[in-house]
Specification:
75 residues, mainly alpha, 3 helices, rod-shaped
Length: 75
């Protein structure tokens, strides 16, 4: 009889996911933001000390990582 209770309890735990659909969507958005930041850092033109490469791209990557933390912690 106790086996039936533990099996139903474990089935309920298996069905319940840690993240919701919204968390996964926000996490995908944060990954895209990070990828865009790295693409901005790459560039093809010659100046390595360009504002885009030294300021905008790193800020975009950091924002993407921060948004990823928010996506994980959002309840």
């Amino acid at each position: 009889m106790s086996d039936k209770k533990t099996t139903s309890a474990t089935q309920n735990q298996k069905e319940e996911l840690v993240f919701t659909k919204k968390n996964y969507q926000l996490l995908i958005i944060s990954i895209v933001i990070v990828v865009v930041g790295f693409l901005l850092m790459m560039g093809a033109d010659g100046d390595i000390y360009d504002t885009r490469r030294t300021l905008i791209a790193p800020m975009t990557v950091l924002f993407g990582f921060g948004f990823g933390v928010y996506a994980i912690l959002k309840k």
